[in-house]
Amino acid sequence: MTWLEILDHTPKQSELNDILRDSLGPFYAPFYKLYLILRSSVLPGPTAEIYWLYLLSALAIGLGLYVWQHSKTRGVSINELLGFCLPRHVYAHKSAIVDYKYYFPSKILHGFFVGGFLLISTALIGGYCKSLLQQIFGPVESQLEAGLLARFIYTVLLVLAVDVGFFIAHYLEHKVPFFWEFHKVHHSAEVLTPITNHRLHPMDDFLQSFFINLFGGAVIGIFGYHFYNGLDTITILNVSVVMLVYYVTANLRHSHIWLSYGWALSHVFYSPAMHQIHHSIAERHLDKNFGRVFSFCDYLAGTLYVPREQEDIKWGLRNQEHTEYSSVWLLLVLPVKKAVRLAISSLLKTPIVQRRFRS
Q1: What angle do CA 176, 212, 331 make, to 5 degrees?
Q2: Residue 235 β-bridge partners
Q3: What count of other Cβ atoms lies within 10 Å of the Cβ of residue 181?
Q4: 239-271 per-residue burial string, b: 16 or more CB within 10 A, e: under 16
Q5: Residues forming beta bridges with residue 269, ordered by sequence position
Q6: How open is the CA angle 289-237-143, to the nearest 5 degrees?
């Protein structure tokens, strides 16, 4: 069922839909798509990192860290506590202000660009994968039972598959110069706030969604082949229990508050401190920690960097390049200019093209 069909099945809005459909004609669909995008942006649900419950949990953890670090030495001050969690030099920084301005355009572009041009979804890939397995191996004679253990395994493997997809996309964004020009938008942030998570160029967003859907859909198809009647993940608030644990601390990934899981646990789960290091411009931190939920892919790829203690970090791009991304317009246009320039430059360096131009 598409977003439009879901909307049409909402009783309270059915009459309004009929009026708008008659009035707007061919503009009805894009109008309502824009409406839904804006509504989900203003009131994000539990599947969004900036859902109010996750913001509140991040704030609570920040308050707890402050009390734990300072209560024994000089006591707790309300002003200092608020300054620690919501410092003005971070949230009023010009880079953060650009993030706030970019938030709604990025959500709209994601809805139209990624949603409109990304032709694969997890459901689509899952269906293809299931059909392929049926063609190769035939139907499963005895279907497995969808018990609690099977659902738990499915829940964990699905998150792991999505994490692998994210890792591959993220790795390519750093290692392929053409993709890096678009990913620079995210790394151009000079300070980190939860809104920085949405500082993504549409092309960057497109690439991540492609690989996430590809790997997530494959797991859905494999399990769908063995569990013909379907298999549901274990959820709370309609969110996978594994992702719910991730969301509790997710907003600290893009923040100034240091939260590490310790040396041993950080080799399994990706901590907020590890992502802060990923944004660092220090030589020892470059191209490290590409993961999101788990640390396995980084460990296998040799890109894992687990800090033993809190480190001083400076965020942004090297050689002060982050100063170029100073407005919403530049966040959108500058990567395209640089990527096209890079592509043309690379093309002209090939022997075939050089011979053509010489002749």
Answers
A1: 55
A2: 240
A3: 23
A4: bbbbbbebbbbbbbbbbbbbbbbeeeebbebbb
A5: 294
A6: 85
Question: pLDDT band at residue 20, thresholds of 50, 70 and 90?
Answer: low
**227, 157 in Cβ contact below 8 A?**
no
Question: Is 43 in a helix, a strand, or coil?
Answer: coil
CA–CA gap between residue 214 and residue 218 (Å, rounded):
6
23-59, pLDDT tens digit by residue?
666 766 777 777 778 888 888 999 899 999 999 999 9
Segment 246-267 shows an average pLDDT of 96
Closest CA to 304 of 291, 317, 314: 291
In the numeric block, the tokens 């459909």 are attached to: 21
pLDDT tens digits, 79-133: 888 888 999 999 999 999 999 999 999 999 988 888 777 888 888 999 999 999 9
pTM, full prediction: 0.88
Residue 60 sits at the vertex; the CA angle it makes with 308 and 51, to the nearest 5 degrees, is 105
